[in-house]
Design brief:
Elements (H helix, E strand, L loop, with lengths): L5 E5 L4 E6 L11 H16 L5 E6 L11 H17 L1 H12 L1 H10 L5 E5 L3 E2 L1 H8 L2 E5 L6 E2 L13 H8 L2 H10 L5 H6 L5 E3 L4 H10 L29 H12 L4 H13 L4 H16 L2 H18 L15 E5 L3 H12 L3 E5 L3 H20 L5 H9 L1 E4 L10 E4 L5 H14 L5 E4 L6 H4 L9 E6 L8 E6 L5 H13 L3 E6 L6 H18 L3 H10 L6 H8 L1 H15 L6 H13 L12 E2 L7 E2 L18 H21 L6 H12 L8 H8 L1 H15 L7 H9 L3 H4 L1 H7 L1
Helix pairs in contact: 1-4, 2-3, 4-5, 6-7, 7-11, 10-11, 11-12, 13-26, 14-15, 15-16, 20-22, 20-25, 21-25, 23-24, 25-27, 27-28, 28-29
Length: about 725
């Protein structure tokens, strides 16, 4: 048998070993060729009387991350072509059959009459884990890097190769739904407890144990194909079953606000599938899968969160001619919460860190924050004591700038004050060699002006982390007017080393992310002043797809910082550059009532020592009139939140702050949580069309003011029926 992606060999006991090892790839992925070859192997194993069964494993360090989702984009293009050439009914039939191809192959494996076992030696996600679930026995290596799971929901899909049906037959329905909705990666022992695998064994034993199952007479029949099989939660229409479904539907509504078709499809697939025998259940799942594959939400999320993010993570914006320069030592100036977080992720990536502050006590305090962070990971079983000791051993707290000598990269993370930043920059430069790259973790101050304090401005760059550093995936890289390609390459190499996603933007006030976030928060402030109930503002924002309401977000950022930014903007650009009503609200909150946000326990919310936060009753005093909540147009409020951010993103594109739509979309979702189901700020506009978006902006402008005026770029795009991804396609290709 001629195989390219697999190796097949049979031992003297009649146990076949199928090793998945795709040439030219660092990780195995599911492609059409892989599906074809797997089907050939299943048919061969079933037909060869000398083969008792088959073990499937990987020849790489990990098992597989699942399907190559770019093939789904190809399938969507083929559907559109068939729609034009053959009509809707035939196009839908062809698409359905193509979309269930993998599911049918897995079912063929499961029912071929020979036992299959999966020896999972590392990461095994998505369609790869669905392959394991179709096997009759599963052994996973009990190692730190091993994970199993079905994360499809995170890119607007759901498990369409049997995942919804097999998981729902392996565990209680509520637990299965929770797993499918969250899409989390599950550790080996937890997977064993959840009944997803049969064994979690030492890495050196997984092949032997999988082979032992087959050699020992393991059955080639799945539990659900046995006549005695009973569902873990009983029948759907039973007292036990009805304890699940009303609650599941309520949780779905609460968590998704009906924004995610894939989540609804999971509910349907499991609910309907559990009432049917397996083959019919899989057909139901496939019908929902085909429907979701054609949804605009899935197309947008796959493009942004899989294709675009993958390209950015692989260095799409890295200057190709800049040589790789291994980063061994990093200096971090400022041992506060942000600086400590930067030190923590840097040391966690294996680099030595010098953590500088004004005195030794302050520097030591920053290292103690790192200690707390890694200790928390140890307590949760996500790190070992030896790893903690190694990480802390790589962090040297100091008050002596001379300790920065030999650093490849220095990141200052001191207070947002030009004078303070200039002072520490000059001190650091005296200790550094001429090739060191210096970065500012500023969130608002222009990089060009900060670079004036550094002797080599071409080596000066912005690296803007988001808080908390250890959790936030996005890093904004800001190019000053004189920043050189080497500085950019070093910054991107560093970000890749700490396993975060970069976007590259040009210098401006607020850069990209904070400009959009600022508009979101401002809209919440103005709604409050209009008389909208604060709780409604917060809830409608979440209904629109945002992870947290604007008032709660402002509390996290700090109200005094928001006021300081407004005051600095007005000083630099004039009074017209800020909203006077918003400024008055923040000034009253900060200076009139001493409410700074979460950091002092009182902002738009109160934060009691015991119990959950709650909206401050005093907010009512800022409202000259009260809007009747029953008469508020909820849909319009939702649009205001999203349009305010998307408009600012369009302005950033027009001004050349962002030059690649991929970065705007990826940055908006993972940086500040812009409604993921839209695909990001620019995909939101492209999705409705520039002409429709301009009409919507004009409606909001007439009702709420000039802040909703569309920029010229949108007007031009509306006239020319353009999209951002169409207009800037060449730029994206050029930097890829």
């Amino acid at each position: 048998m001629n195989l390219t992606n697999f190796r097949l060999e049979t031992d003297s006991d009649g146990v076949a070993l199928l090793t998945w090892d795709m040439p030219g790839r660092s990780m195995n992925v599911i492609t059409p060729d892989v599906i074809d070859e797997l089907e050939k192997v299943v048919e061969h194993v079933a037909a060869d009387a000398a083969i008792k069964g088959c073990v499937i494993t990987s020849g790489k360090e990990t098992f597989s991350g699942g399907a190559d989702l770019s093939m789904l984009q190809v399938a969507a293009a083929e559907y559109r072509k068939a729609l034009r050439d053959k009509g809707e009914e035939e196009a839908a039939r062809l698409f359905f059959e193509a979309s269930r191809r993998l599911s049918l192959v897995y079912r063929k494996l499961e029912t071929c009459g020979k036992p299959f076992a999966a020896a999972i030696n590392g990461l095994c996600l998505g369609g790869a884990f669905e392959l394991a679930l179709a096997c009759h026995y599963r052994v996973v290596a009990d190692v730190d890097k091993a994970r199993v799971g079905l994360p499809e929901i995170k890119v607007g899909l759901f498990p369409g190769a049997g995942g919804t049906q097999r998981v729902a037959r392996l565990m209680h329905t509520g637990d299965a739904l929770q797993m499918l909705f969250k899409g989390e990666q599950i550790r080996p022992k937890a997977a064993k407890t959840m009944n997803l695998v049969h064994e979690a064994a030492p890495a050196g034993e997984i092949l032997a144990r999988a082979k032992s199952f087959i050699a020992g007479g393991g059955k080639g029949v799945a539990p659900w194909d046995e006549s005695t099989f009973k569902l873990p939660s009983g029948k759907v229409f039973s007292p036990q079953g009805m304890m699940v479904w009303p609650a599941a539907n309520a949780i779905y509504r609460r968590e998704t606000h009906d924004n995610y078709p894939a989540a609804k499809a999971i509910l349907h697939s499991v609910y309907e599938g559990l009432q049917l025998p397996m083959d019919l259940a899989l057909r139901v799942e496939s019908r929902w899968f085909a429907k979701i594959l054609r949804s605009p939400e899935a197309a947008a999320m796959i493009r942004t969160l899989f294709v675009s993010m993958g390209e950015l993570n692989k260095g799409a914006r890295r200057p190709a001619h800049a040589p790789a320069a291994p980063i061994k030592k990093v200096g971090v100036i400022g041992a506060g919460f942000m600086g400590a977080g930067i030190a923590y992720v840097t040391a966690g990536a294996g680099m030595d860190v010098v953590l500088i502050d004004r005195d030794q006590a302050a520097a030591d305090k920053g290292k103690s924050v790192c200690d707390q962070l890694i200790s928390g990971q140890v307590l949760k079983g996500r790190a070992k004591t030896a790893e903690k000791e190694a990480l802390l051993g790589r962090i040297k707290p100091s008050a002596d700038y001379e300790d920065l000598a030999g650093a490849d990269l220095v990141i200052e993370a001191v207070f947002e004050d030009r004078a303070i930043k200039a002072d520490v920059t000059r001190k650091a430069r005296l200790a550094l060699g001429p090739n060191a790259v210096f970065a500012s973790n500023t969130s608002t101050l222009p990089i060009g002006s900060l670079a004036e304090a550094y002797a080599e401005p071409e080596q000066f760059i912005g690296i803007h982390f988001f808080s908390p550093v250890e959790k936030m995936a996005l890093v904004e890289v800001i190019l000053g007017e004189k920043t050189g390609d080497r500085a950019l390459a070093v910054a991107l190499d560093f970000i890749r080393a700490i396993k975060k996603t970069p976007i590259v933007v040009n210098d401006s006030r607020g850069f990209f992310a904070n400009r959009c976030v600022g508009n979101y928060i401002r809209e919440g402030h103005l709604m409050l002043l209009e008389g909208a109930p604060p709780a409604l503002i917060e809830n409608v924002a979440k209904m629109a797809g945002m992870p947290v309401g604007p008032l709660a977000l402002n509390d996290e950022v700090a109200l005094d910082l928001a006021l300081k930014i407004l005051e600095a903007t007005k000083q630099d650009l004039g009074e017209a550059a800020v909203d006077a009503d918003q400024e008055a609200l923040l000034r009253a909150m900060v200076k009139g009532h001493g409410r700074l946000g979460r950091k002092n326990g009182k902002g738009f919310y109160d934060y009691p020592a015991q119990g959950p936060k709650f909206l401050w009753p005093g907010l009512a005093d800022f409202q000259k009139a009260k809007l009747d909540p029953d008469r508020i147009d909820i849909a319009e409020f939702k649009r205001r939140f999203l349009v305010a951010q998307a408009l600012e993103a369009a302005r950033a594109i027009e001004e050349g702050v962002v030059t690649d739509p991929r970065e705007a979309d990826v940055g908006s979702i993972i940086g500040f949580g812009f409604a993921p189901f839209t695909g990001g700020v620019l995909s939101y506009i492209d999705g409705m069309g520039a002409a429709n978006f301009v009409v919507l902006c004009d409606e909001l402008r007439r009702k709420y003011g000039p802040r909703f005026t569309p920029p010229q770029i949108l007007i031009d795009m509306a006239r020319g029926h353009e999209t951002f991804y169409g207009r800037f396609a060449n730029e994206a290709k050029r930097v890829a």
